Amino acid sequence: MEVSTSQGKLKKKLPLVVGGCAALVVVAALGWVFFGSPASKFDLKELRISRTQNGPAVENPVFAPREQIWLNAWVGNFSREGEIAHVVQDLQLFDPVGKQIMNREAIVEFRDVARADDEILLPVYVAIPEGFPIGEYKARMVFTDRVSGKTVKKEAFFTIQAETAQVPKEGPEPAGGGTEKK
């Protein structure tokens, strides 16, 4: 498997194996900029664990193999060189026993025109392969404003369950079920 990153013309492919299982991390730094209010300190405005890019937060972040776990982060109050902001995100992943199973520096890189009061979306997803070990995982992210040198760290937790436990039912159960004996 490979880790892929892209922002504008930047493209990298790196090998990644997690706990003996192949895993795929794909980065989608699309240069999305949201308008916010100016402040004085580089910071993480929001971090959402989601099933889609820029999607709603998952209340109880439980996923199954073959699902994508999106880590949607918004940073703000960054410094600029002229009109150019330069922000990078590092990502580390830890398994249920606390062992680091992935470490990628600058997995997302945003270098583009941005207003001083903008918020930049840095979305990353992890695709969970078949057979991935179940349990609670920790993602540690470090966001760095390359212009000012300031950093912000954040951890997020999600759980991988067996696939059969995660499959949601579509709509209500039919009345009279069909498996009861009379």
Overview of this structure, please?
The chain has about 180 residues and is mostly beta strands. It has a single domain, classed as Immunoglobulin-like (Sandwich). The chain has one helix at about 165, and strands spanning about 1-5, 10-15, 15-20, 20, 25, 35, 45-50, 60-65, 70-75, 80, 85-95, 100-115, 120-125, 135-145, 150-160. Strands 1, 2, 5, 6, 7, 9 and 13 form a 7-stranded mixed beta sheet that branches. A hairpin with a 5-residue loop joins strand 11 and strand 12 (about 100-115). The longest helix has 4 residues, at about 165. The protein starts with a strand and ends in a 16-residue tail after the last helix.
Portion in strands: over 45%
Secondary structure: helix percent: under 10%
User: Which stretches are poorly predicted, pLDDT < 50 over at least 5 residues?
Assistant: 1-39, 165-182
Distance between the amino and carboxyl termini? 52 Å
The CATH architecture assignment turns out to be: Sandwich
On the 0-100 scale, what is the average pLDDT? 77
Enter the CATH topology name.
Immunoglobulin-like
How many DSSP helices?
1
| Main β sheet profile | 7 strands, mixed
Class inferred from helices and paired strands: mainly beta
